[in-house]
Amino acid sequence: MVLFVNGPIQNGSFTFRDRPGKAVGLRLAETLNGILDHPRAPHLWNTVTLEGDLRHGRGLAPAERAQRERLALLDKYAPGLPSPPEVLTDTDPAVAALALDMIEAGLSQGSLRIERTAVRECTDCGHMIGPVSARCTACGGERLRTTRTRHLVHHLAEKDVSLAGLLHNHHRRPARHLEAILGQAPRRLLLSRTRAHGIGLDALGLEGVDPRTGLHVTVLAAVRSAGGTLAAMTATAHSIGHIAAHGIGFNSWREHRLRYAVHGLLPYEALSAIGKVYAFHRVTRRERLAFESRFLPLFA
After folding, report:
1. Please, is 170 exposed, middle or buried when counting C-beta atoms within 10 Å of its C-beta (0-12, 13-18, 19+)?
2. Which residues make Cβ contacts (< 8 Å) with residue 168, sequence separation at least 6?
3. For position 171, what pLDDT does the model report?
4. CB of 46 within 8 A of CB of 9?
5. For each successive 10 residues of the chain (300 residues), what is the average pLDDT?
6. What is the CA 248 to chain-centroid distance, rounded?
7. pTM of the prediction?
8. Residue 169, CA distances (Å) to 37, 187, 231, 260, 262 in order
9. Cα–Cα distance measured from residue 268 to residue 21, given in angstroms and rounded to the nearest whole number
10. What 3-state class would DSSP assign to 208?
11. 120 - beta bridge partners?
């Protein structure tokens, strides 16, 4: 069974009322599963974010942080979308357990390794910094240093850097575009990051799992819990280009597989411009809701 699920949404400071475009993936998955007479999929959320670290602070106990994240994301539904059948985040126990199983398997098979590697970090707070950043994105500090620390590393072979078989019902143009982006990924990819909240790798003496990897594990956990075999993850080409490299090796587990269902952006903020068309056709509120929540996502 193919189950459509949304690409996990970052739990940022917005609601679906002021940012309805954030819900396109949810609405698309809901509509397609309904057409196929498949069960409703859980709504997936990305809570391992630097924005969340800054908003909630770094001193919270994991349970309190998880509770705050869940309350924040549930507040986004009122008003906007109907209540989700289930909410699954990228730090839920089922997701964390699956991630650790997949990492353990990768280490035992040799596809993943733990290696000392040179990284840039903030002298003030220890946050890991990108190779071209001039200041810390966590605390704003400008005192940076290069240090050698242990990380979870994935050495990508040339054959691994491909989207072959990973795009669900794709067109050639986005496939070429995404292949070009993926081809620029470093062949030595770090899969562990400094985060105040996330899937910890303490047992390995490492920081947490990179959230881009965690997103893929969340989707696989969702399709497992729903009894499906193939998860078609709704996401824009931009989003897929950002996360695809970190999903290599984490897009299948036993009989469960993940594919990307690419959709376009919808300019919901411009829908007020067609108010005269609604008025001319005497469109009811129910008809407008059906048009904007069902037809438009399918068009995307």
Report:
1. middle
2. 2, 232, 259, 260, 261, 262
3. 60
4. yes
5. 96 88 92 94 95 86 93 85 89 97 97 94 89 86 92 91 85 75 90 90 93 98 94 95 96 96 85 83 90 85
6. 14
7. 0.92
8. 19, 28, 13, 9, 9
9. 6
10. strand
11. 129, 146
